[in-house]
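Q: Please design a sequence for this.
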C-alpha cells in the first residue's frame, strides 16, 4: 500500500511535475512505492512559496522522522539557501554539492535538502531532466537548436528556464508527443541513468535508507573485526592508507555482547548506527568467507548478495586512532526480489525500422521492468547495443555488446539477462556475450 499523508517519512516538492518525475525515477531504479513502507509519502505544494511556508512550520513543530525537500534553485543556490537557513538555522553556510543531509541528535529526525538541478548551479527540475537525455540524441539537438534560434529572433527566455523550453520541445518530437515528465521517464523517452541522477539517488538513500558506518582499527600484528548488518568484517594485510582487502563472512556462529576485557579479541572496534554488537570474543567462521580488494580511488564500492539480501559496501577511507590505522566502511542492504535471487530477463529486441541496427541512428527501446530490476536498451550510432541495468540498491552498470555484421533484414535478437548470486550474464541468441560481477 502506498504511504499515506500521516507516514513519518515524507518527500516535499514544489508541484506535480516534481512529484511524478521523482517517483518515476526512483521506481525505475528498483524501488516499490506501492509496497515498501520505507519509501516516503510524496507531498506536492502549490509552488515554492507554499513549500517555504511549510518548511518554516516543519522546523519548529514537526513530529516526522525523515523529510526530504526538493526545490528549484532558480536564479542561484545562494538566494534559495538563504531562504532555507532563515527557517532552519542549523544548516551550514552552503549546501552540499552531493545533497544536504541533516541529522538531529536530540530526537530521531533526518532532514535532506536537494536544490535542483545539482545543489550548485542556477536552474530548475528541467535542468536536471536534461541530463537524462543522450548528448548525441538527434531530437535533443533539434530541440536545443529550435529554442536557441527562437531566442536569437527575439523570443524572451529567462536563462535559468531555458532547459524547460528545450525539454518540452524535445518531448514534442517523441513518438508519443507531449508526455508528462514522469510518464516520459517510465516510457524511456527520458533515461533513468546519468551521473547526476545517481548522485540524487545516493542522497535519497541517505535520507530514507540509511546504512551503517563501520570503523575497524587494526593493531600492527593482527586484523580486528566488526559486526554489522549480520556480517563479520575484517581487514587483511597487506593494507595501506588508501587500499585494503576486506574479508566478509555472512554467518556468525557464536558471539558475545559487551564482553569483558579478558574476553576481547579486539580493542578498537566500533560500529555506528543501529547495531547492538560492537565487539565479539568467540567467532566460528565458515568456508563461506570471501574477500575483495578496495581502494579510495578506483574501486571504492563492492556489491554482493547473501541469504536473500543485497549488500553494498563502500570504502570511505582511513584515519589514525591511538596510533592504529582505522578503516571506515559504509554498509547498505536491501532485500532481493525473486528475480534478483535467481532469475532471468528474456525479451525480443527488434524495431519497426528494418535497418535499425545498421543505420547510424540512435534507437531507444521501451524499458523493461520486473521485480525491482529495470533494463534500458539503446542502439548507439556505431551499432553497439547498450544495456543499462538498474539494481536494487540504486547502483547501476552498463553492458555493451557490439554485434557481428548483420546481413538479414529487420533483425531480431532473443536477449537473456540472467541474475545469479555474484554476477549478471548477458546472452544474445543463446550465446554468452558479457558477464558483470556484482
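A: Design:
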Amino acid at each position: 500500500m502506498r504511504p499515506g499523508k500521516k507516514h513519518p517519512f515524507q518527500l516535499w516538492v514544489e508541484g506535480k511535475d516534481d512529484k511524478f518525475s521523482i517517483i518515476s525515477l526512483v521506481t525505475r531504479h528498483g524501488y516499490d512505492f506501492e509496497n515498501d513502507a520505507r519509501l516516503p509519502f510524496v507531498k506536492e505544494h502549490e509552488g515554492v512559496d507554499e513549500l517555504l511556508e511549510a518548511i518554516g512550520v516543519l522546523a519548529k513543530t514537526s513530529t516526522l522522522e525523515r523529510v526530504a525537500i526538493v526545490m528549484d534553485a532558480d536564479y542561484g543556490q545562494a538566494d534559495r539557501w538563504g531562504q532555507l537557513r532563515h527557517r532552519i538555522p542549523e544548516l551550514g553556510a552552503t549546501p552540499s554539492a552531493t545533497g544536504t543531509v541533516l541529522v538531529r541528535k536530540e530526537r530521531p529526525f533526518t532532514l535532506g535538502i536537494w536544490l535542483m538541478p545539482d545543489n550548485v548551479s542556477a536552474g530548475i527540475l528541467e535542468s536536471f531532466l536534461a541530463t537524462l537525455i543522450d548528448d548525441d540524441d538527434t531530437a535533443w539537438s533539434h530541440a536545443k537548436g529550435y529554442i536557441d534560434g527562437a531566442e536569437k529572433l527575439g523570443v524572451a527566455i529567462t536563462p535559468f528556464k531555458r532547459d524547460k523550453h528545450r525539454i518540452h520541445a524535445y518531448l514534442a518530437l517523441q513518438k508519443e508527443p507531449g508526455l508528462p515528465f514522469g510518464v516520459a521517464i517510465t516510457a524511456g523517452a527520458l533515461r533513468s541513468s546519468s551521473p547526476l541522477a545517481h548522485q540524487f539517488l545516493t542522497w535519497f538513500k541517505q535520507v530514507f535508507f540509511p546504512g551503517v558506518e563501520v570503523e575497524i582499527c587494526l593493531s600492527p600484528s593482527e586484523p580486528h573485526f566488526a559486526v554489522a548488518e549480520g556480517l563479520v568484517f575484517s581487514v587483511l594485510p597487506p593494507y595501506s592508507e588508501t587500499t585494503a582487502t576486506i574479508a566478509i563472512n555472512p554467518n556468525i556462529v557464536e558471539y558475545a555482547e559487551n564482553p569483558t576485557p579478558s574476553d576481547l579479541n579486539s580493542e578498537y572496534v566500533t560500529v555506528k548506527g543501529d547495531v547492538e554488537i560492537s565487539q565479539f570474543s568467540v567467532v566460528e567462521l565458515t568456508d563461506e568467507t570471501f574477500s575483495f580488494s578496495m581502494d579510495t580511488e578506483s574501486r571504492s564500492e563492492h556489491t554482493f548478495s547473501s541469504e536473500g539480501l543485497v549488500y553494498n559496501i563502500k570504502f570511505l577511507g582511513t584515519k589514525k586512532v591511538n596510533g592504529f590505522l582505522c578503516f571506515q566502511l559504509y554498509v547498505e542492504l536491501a532485500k532481493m526480489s525473486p528475480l534478483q535471487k535467481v532469475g532471468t530477463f528474456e525479451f525480443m529486441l527488434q524495431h519497426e525500422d528494418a535497418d535499425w541496427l545498421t543505420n547510424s541512428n540512435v534507437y531507444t527501446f521501451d524499458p523493461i521492468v520486473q521485480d525491482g530490476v529495470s533494463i534500458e536498451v539503446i542502439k548507439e550510432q556505431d551499432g553497439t547495443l547498450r544495456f543499462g541495468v538498474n539494481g536494487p540498491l540504486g547502483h547501476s552498470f552498463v553492458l555493451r555488446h557490439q554485434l557481428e555484421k548483420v546481413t538479414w533484414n529487420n533483425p531480431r535478437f532473443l536477449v537473456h539477462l540472467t541474475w545469479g548470486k555474484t554476477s549478471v550474464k548477458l546472452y544474445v541468441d543463446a550465446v554468452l556475450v558479457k558477464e558483470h560481477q556484482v
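Q: Thanks. Anything notable?
A: The two ends are 30 Å apart (CA to CA). The chain has three domains: 1-209, 211-258+270-335, 343-437.
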